[in-house]
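Agenda item 2: zinc ion complex prediction
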Amino acid sequence: MLLISPVFVLADPDSLSLTSGVKLEVKPVEVIWNVNDSLYHVPAYDLYCGFNRKNIWGEKVDQTKKVDTTTIHILHDSCDFHSPWVGRLTSGYGWRHNRPHYGVDIKLQTGDSVRSVFDGMVRISRYSASYGNVVVVRHTNGLETLYAHLHKRVVKEGDEIFVGNILGLGGNSGRSYGSHLHFETRYLGEPINPLDIFNINDSTFEVKRDSLSLSSKSFNFLKEVRRIKHHRVRSGDSLWRISKRYGVSITKLCKLNGISRKKTLRIGQRIRYN
Ligand SMILES: [Zn+2]
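Presented output:
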């Protein structure tokens, strides 16, 4: 299986100096990349059975149904970690305006350097409408970290990253209001509260513990999010009608959806009712 673009290596560079004056046509030698190379070079390749470069979330394995407990080693030595950026914590993990927020927001100025927290490999480096310029790094222990709303990315997919390497410059791209870093931690495509792993406050960003135990409890917030039900607005619907249908007060519907009683509903709009 070809996973990462094959590397092209110039044929014996020393031969060029020996034959100065002679014009040589240098042909690249293709190095074939196979599964064993992937297992050796790509972090946690065996855990994920791949290195999905199509999807920001990657391959998801539902962790809310996890039956065992997995212990992940976070740190062997203090030099294994570097803070991505230290700044005012402006938003935490969890509900925000009735919507799930799967990361933490840290204030920065456009142009500030954003760094990788651990060694790893860049799985995603692209522009997305919501995340803006976003980088996802896969780490050896199976964790993935995501850095969003960057002004500029300076790494590309497949790049090997060392702890503290600059991934990009902070910014305000995508669905963002003011320059900040949106930082997420994920395991098998499912978000973990970064505060389960790190101490993050206005002046600190450090590793909280050397290892992390993950069970289905670690994904309780996700269970909550997945229990939410929505009604798809159809012709003739009103808040009153939806309220009667699901036995929920109009006040609660307004609160759950952050709308006023006078709000005109659009056909196709999703209205949360629990
Ligand atoms: Zn955010």
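Discussion summary: The longest strand covers residues 120-128.
Owner for follow-up: CH.
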